[in-house]
Amino acid sequence: MGENALLKLTLAGWLALIGWTHPGSAGGVADSCIQSYKDRQYEQALPLCLKAAEQGDPHAQYILGKLYYFGIGVQQDYVQAVNWYLEAAGQGYAEAQNILGWMYNFGKGVQRNDTEAVKWYLKAAEQGHAKGQCNLGWMYNFGNGVQKDHAEAAKWFRRAAEQGYAKAQYGLAEIYANGKGVKKDDNEAVKWYLKAAEQGHAKAQFNLAVAYARGKGLLQSGGTAADWYYKAGFSYLKEGKKDDALRCVERIKDLKISLHLSEPKAFLADKLLTSIQGDDTSETSPAPEKNQD
Q1: pLDDT (tens digit, 9 = 90+) per residue, 185-201?
Q2: What is the largest CA-CA distance in the chain?
Q3: 30, containing H or E segment
Q4: pLDDT tens for residues 242-272?
Q5: Count of CB atoms within 10 A of residue 71's CB?
Q6: 181 — pLDDT class (breaks 50, 70, 90)
Q7: Which residue among 12, 133, 237, 260 has its CA within the 20 to 30 Å range from the CA of 183?
Q8: Which residues neighbour 250 within 8 Å (Cβ) at sequence distance 6 or greater?
Q9: How crowded is residue 245: how many other Cβ atoms within 10 Å of its Cβ?
Q10: Phi, psi dihedrals of residue 263, rounded to the nearest 5°
Q11: Burial code of 4-42, b = ≥16 C-beta within 10 A, e = fewer?
Q12: In this structure, are residues 248 and 206 in contact, taking their beta carbons and an 8 Å threshold?
């Protein structure tokens, strides 16, 4: 073998080793698609993602599915979204598997099919995908598409909860609070409610407030209960659930009578009510990114 040929072979080997790709190659187009999407340059991302998706890149296929689902840079089309999610999911892309499960779960772009939803949630869950694990937990919890099994629900909730996923933390807390599949344990319920509540999960915040008001799993404290009802009220308001927010107002007022709540804490009810009437969510965290669970 000549010296020039050997040099070319060695150079090619090094380029392959470090993952170098030409901008026009599948990898280069996919990278450009992903970066454009991250930068919210959707009009630029669309043709790049389409090209990369047609070349078989699962991440690009997943992004293209999201663009079609939300109608970003293209006309909204759930059927097309499902098609691209299916392409990515078939290649083992966990995020696409979870969302495809969600599409079947709620009948978006496909006929509703809980059995098919469970199939895709499971594929994502087995890869350690927290949302997929949580969604699978709810399917077992309610017996949708699978035989009801609270112990199995608790298993999947725990796996996702330990990754810090708030919805799963709430689900696991509910399992402990109601004694389904695991032994009823108010301390464990409070532990997981707190983790979810600290991330802004409205139902967890409300249930944590109830626990403080009743002294279940922790020391009774009307003041702390009022604080969590107040936070829950804002979280509900952010979700557009005014009735639930008003329920938090009433709970704080009840504490003033039942637990002799101090005036500063009792004032939280009026403060929350004023925000509800003005639809003010300024004290809540920023709105979450568009997503499907």
Answers
A1: 999 999 999 999 999 99
A2: 94
A3: helix 26-38
A4: 999 999 999 999 999 999 999 999 999 999 9
A5: 12
A6: confident
A7: 133
A8: none
A9: 25
A10: -60, -45
A11: eeeeeeeeeeeeeeeeeeeeeebbebbbbbbebbeeeeb
A12: yes
C-beta of residue 264 within 8 angstroms of C-beta of residue 41:
no
pLDDT score of 35 = 95
Category of 184 on φ-ψ map: left (φ > 0), alpha (ψ -120 to 50) or beta: beta
- Distance (Å, whole) CA 207 – CA 166: 14
On whether the CB atoms of residues 36 and 44 are closer than 8 A, the answer is: yes
DSSP 289: P
The answer to whether 166 and 201 have CB atoms below 8 angstroms apart is: yes
pLDDT one-digit tens code per residue, 107-151: 999 999 999 999 999 999 999 999 999 999 999 999 999 999 999
Q: Tally the residues of the chain.
A: 293
**Token digits of residue 223:** 């003041």
Distance of alpha carbon 200 from alpha carbon 117, whole angstroms: 27
Q: Cα angle at 161 between 86 and 119, to 5 degrees?
A: 25
Binned at pLDDT 50, 70 and 90, residue 4 comes out as: very low
Q: Residue 289 pLDDT > 80, yes or no?
A: no
pTM (predicted TM-score): 0.85
